[in-house]
Fold:
Amino acid sequence: MTVIERGGASGMGVGGGVGSGTGSETGGGIGSETGGGFIELDGLEKVFDVRRRTGFLRSERREVRAVDGISFRVERGEMVGYIGPNGAGKSTTIKMLTGILTPSGGSLRVAGVDPSRERTRLAHRIGVVFGQRTTLWWDLPLRDSYRLVHRMYRVPDARFRVNLERCVELLDLEELLDVPVRQLSLGQRMRGDIAAALLHDPEVLYLDEPTIGLDVVSKAKVRGFLRDLNAERGTTVLLTTHDLTDIEQLCKRVMVIDHGRLMYDGALAGLHEVGESERTLVVDLERELPPIRLESEPQVRTVKVEGPRQWLAFPASASAAPLVARIAAEYPMVDLSVREPDIEAVIAKMYASAKGPPERPATEAPATGAPAEGR
Structure:
């Protein structure tokens, strides 16, 4: 694992590629990897000027660094979690990786290509799903949206049929193909968006909250689908999510971003250790008793008591099994459950222990650009 100090350099990717992508390339070659990672960011920055009115005919302009000097590499075939609280800069990073936004500084390459300069040609090798924005046509049935994707990306007919059948089967879309997108639920639309992003065989897939709005069964299907896609085709996946289970089940590597800076790059277990996060053991006793105390477990503490139910906090890196065994042996336990730490709380602790971002001096001037949209 690699911990990123505030203002420091990034940690590098761990783990090699699983295989080569099978993305369709049209319009000739668009670049090649130059001995580094499949995705490479070096000191990447995105700065917006935001104007705030301070009086009559007066305004205050401040500089907002949505992405502030991020550097990392992702190897071909990796599945990487890219997480952080709202406003951290995750979506802004994804938009620069896809060419939607142009960096203010630093450099980035995807498969040897600068996305902002060759966005159209790179589009044939990437797939994107934004959880709150659909790429489907609102008034058209799913089937017609997929036909338009087929033509736009010039996917060979045979390949399109194979990909569509696979997506429809694994994402359970058969009954939705003739339903207009505007009539789909959020979860149904998300599955439809994921299928649309994969019909042209992208080599890299950017997913922003791919399981939002899905029930437990649908989430399991999507996770299994993405896992198989990565294993069978070597598709590189960069996943942003607030659902820690997505990361745990799909990604061996996780990166944490906050205030536009990379704070951690490594394994998920290491993230809990660095953030000093805690899991919660909820214990139901036969009757109301004083707070549970275990002298042999000094790191365990009772944080809440309500009648016969007690909440015990213990380090997230520790196993719950010995703790459960001790409580069962010493107390009349009826039931229990283990609650995983909230990822936002983990990141908040990490950020609180680091130096805050420096304040940017404001000047009175008209604003340019647009506000940051980092998530």
Q: What stands out?
A: The two ends are 24 Å apart (CA to CA).
